[in-house]
Amino acid sequence: MLDPTDYAQLDAVGLRELMANGEVSAAEVEEAARVALTSVADDLGALTQPLFETALAHEADGPLGGVPFVIKDSGPFARGVPFAFGSRAIHGVADADHELMSRFRRAGLAAIGQTCAPELGLNFATESRRYGVTRNPWNRERGVGGSSGGAAALVASGAVPVAHGSDGAGSIRIPAACCGVVGLKPSRGTTTSGPPVRGGLPMGVDFAVTRTVRDTAVLLDAAATPDTIRSPAGPYAKLVIVDPGRLRIGFATESWAGVDVDAEIAAVTRGVADTLDWIGHDVAETTPAIDQREVVDALLLAIHAAGRALLLAPRRPETRLLEAVSRSIVAETAAMTDEDVDRFALGQRHVTTSVERSFDGLDLLVMPVTAQLPLRHGTLDYDDPRWAARTWIERILEYGPFTAAFNVSGHPAISLPLGQSRSGMPIGVQLVARIAREDLLVQVAGQLEQAMPWAGRQPPIFAG
Predict the structure, then answer these.
(1) Residue 311 has pLDDT above 70, yes or no
(2) Is 423 part of the annotated catalytic residue set?
(3) Of 147, 148, 187, 231, which is the active-site residue?
């Protein structure tokens, strides 16, 4: 039998190697995962329901065949699995697999549970009236970020090595930073194109959170769309240990939104820049010229796409059961004009141009993920009726000002757990690349994992 404590120490690649070598069976790995998940479930509040009775169907011979996995409550994702979008007002069952879930099955991932998310995924805190609060394994009094907070909490606690996440404004990278794990948001279209946005381009992307860069790379190979532009150097999994050569890297510790950045977060970011310089890259400070007001305008396209989906749903949710911000979004969406759409779409085009110009003379950008350490529960209250759609976006971007611009523009970005605060909370640092240059993110992330390793860190709440 595989001891749950030993199981929790292994990443997805490590578990798959044990199974491939015949040292443990897939059934033993699944049983260890179930024990691990159960051991942290009550402390974290990260699961929407009891574990599935049996793992969802998957290809046992896939590159990650038999590796335990959990999916996010972000809508109809896996055939036959109920979903609620984190809402008391939504009750559905997926009648087909999402395109990415089909690839996860072919990769061999064995889904055995579903993770909590805030209502409609529109919060940087994983808290909802339906599921309650998801707690951080590093400190139960602190949040896990959002919206893929349940996923990040379970990966950080060793319950599963990899978990499905989605990212429409930072929802993979912010939980990864809060929980001390790896969170990649691929380029628009690399894994998924996201839901359609009236007047603009999709901003949401589905992928995953992991504990190691090699897991992220292997899963990206398995999950990328068939027509994804890949590096001529070969599969992402091989690039983790390939030297990318001397890159031109710009780093920023101040927010273009004018939000104050916690001194410890800024110091860790500067330390990462120093490490990249020591590795041999050309590193210099930069200031991306991005207008946060236009980022907000662009995000309103995506926010109102969610409102439109509710308005057009065959079974329209009961408004009284929605949380306050969702009610505001539905009302504003119903009143939105073509002029509003044109203005928001113009914001997306301007932000995209600004991000592209930020790469002039540079290969990568380095910056924080959040402006503050993980927040206390209730700080970002989605059920507070004083917030309209715009003011709510402005509020959550005060906490996470560095991520959403790259959803708007479609650029790939990854959060890495490269530091800790004096109080022991994780600090994530974000790397951003040009469109379709996930290869550089994987290579430099691999360098930083070697130079600034995080594998030895364990939160107080840890499986086994």
Answers:
(1) yes
(2) no
(3) 147
Helix H, strand E, coil C: the string for the chain is CCCHHHHHHCCHHHHHHHHHCCCCCHHHHHHHHHHHHHHHHHHHCCECCCCCCCCCCCCCCCCCCCCEEEEECCCCCCCCCEECCCCCCCCEECCCCCHHHHHHHHHCCEEEEEECCCHHHCCCCCEECCCEECCECCECCECCCCCCHHHHHHHHCCCCCEEEEEECCCCCHHHHHHHCCEEEECCCCCCCCCCCCCCCCCCCEEEEEECCHHHHHHHHHHHCCCCCCCCCCCCHHHHCCCCCCCCEEEECCCCCCCCCCCHHHHHHHHHHHHHHHHHCCEEEECCCCCCHHHHHHHHHHHHHHHHHHHHHCCCCCCHHHCCHHHHHHHHHHHHCCHHHHHHHHHHHHHHHHHHHHHCCCCCEEEEECCCCCCCECCCCCCCCCCCCHHHHHHHHHHHCCCCHHHHHHCCCEEEEEEEECCCCCEEEEEEEECCCCHHHHHHHHHHHHHHCCCCCCCCCCCCC
Could you tell me the two tokens for 14?
A: 């490590």
CA 76/CA 273 separation, integer angstroms: 40
Q: Output the six-digit token pair for 255.
A: 């927010």
Distance, CA of 432 to CA of 236 (rounded, Å): 16
**Dihedral Cα 399, 405, 408, 410, nearest 10 deg:** -120
Rounded-to-integer distance, Cα 391 and Cα 412, Å: 27
How does pLDDT run across 359-416, given as a tens digit for each residue?
A: 999 999 999 999 999 999 999 999 999 999 999 999 999 999 999 999 999 999 999 9
Out of 39, 148, 166, 171, pick the active-site residue: 171
Strands 68-72 and 92-93, by their bridges, are: unpaired
Distance CA 278, CA 281 (A): 7
Q: Which two tokens stand for residue 69?
A: 């996995």
> Is this model's pTM higher than 0.85 or not?
yes
Start-to-end C-alpha separation, the chain: 14
- Active-site annotation holds for 409: no
Strands 162-167 and 132-133: unpaired
296 token code pair: 């907000």
Could you tell me how far CA 278 lies from the centroid of its own chain?
Answer: 29
pLDDT tens-digit series, residues 147-159: 999 999 999 999 9
